[in-house]
Amino acid sequence: MPSRSSNPHLALWIAATGLSHGEIARRTTAEAIRRGHRQIAPDATRVRRWIDGERPRPPVPALLAAVLSEAVGQPLTPGDLGLTSAGAVLDNIQLPLLTEAAAQTLAGWTQMDLFMDRRETLKLALGAPLILAAERMLGGTARRLNSGSKGFYADTTTALEEVTAFFTKADATKGGGLYRAAIVAQLAEAARRIQDGVPPSLKARVFAATADLAALAGWVSHDCGRYATAQRYWSYGIYAAGEAGQRDRGAEIVTRMSHQMIYLGHPGDALGLLGVAAAKAELPAVKALVASQTGRVHAALGDERQADVHLGRADELVATGLGNEVPEWVAYFDAAEHAGARAVSARDLAGLGRPRTQASVYFTDALKLRKPGFDRVRVMDRVGLAAALFDEGEVAQGAAAAQAALDDAARVDSTLVASRLNTLLAAARPYKTSAVDEVRARAADLAASRPTTVAA
Hints:
By secondary structure, the chain is an all-alpha fold.
């Protein structure tokens, strides 16, 4: 692996070509002449200076990108090479399909997140760039440059798996706000070690655990309102799942990205992402998850027929038991989770004047079916039930359910819960009883203490 430099992205990609600095210079000169830039003729020393951090002027970054793209057989941009003003880590959510370069990019994301607070610099990916990035990560195969194995050993791999399991449980119980910085720091350490080398015998375990950790880092970032940051961690999670040979795990992470698009009001992008996930999903549990979420998006769009088709497909898959061995990373999707999706879908269709089954029925089912340890989603179900009862005109029941839900909501640090509280406030707005007034005051105070939008 190349030594540390001021532009590690360029150093990694030049190393990946296997070409000398002199040959890189020669090919760059030839590409410049081909494009009509006869004044550009770098030598090996100039290439070394670029690696050391000197920033070449245009059109040299584009020329280098063309030369290296041809040499490695993969399209690269000046941003991938660290040759733009924003830098490779800010250009987009796509990752270079080179193991060390991908880990270097992840390290850059975590550094910005923990130490630079660059939330306003990061942009949320939407539309085609988002869909294409997910599709590329799910279908790509990375090249490995480092032949060393000093980054991970059996005991450190076990420790990574154990700490990831701990953080996952803590997030499901209390929300990720308290633990987010620690999760991101652990992800940064994993990225550093991956650059130092992963033994072939441990590759599947290391990247599976890193995929879990990146997926969790994305989720807690989303739950803290850092949306663009979440996209970048999820992007690495999809990539790492592929390195671990777990394409279904990557598809599951894509559904998290689609959930965010629903939450932020971009249902078209959510459907695009779910289409990518559906094309790769093979496990029954992942297929059911994709179908359930797809039905939910169609309900949000008011397409009752398509909502019924996909939710019905999920009904069938859930009824079969989702297979004998459901991986831990998708075990959260069960009959309770699907009932929750059914509830939200019923709520959305009712808001459009097309109710079939009342949302409160599904929320009640979800609460009955929830397993221990999923406190945050149980709180969301309870708040959702209260809001549904208000929507359905059951004012006294809604107020009683809301008070119980608010007691639980106060113990969970989550902007997702805050968003559900805002739904409760909207549902309670038409009613002016003293019981509802008390609910309204408590819900407003809680929602204000956990704002649902942050510039990230």
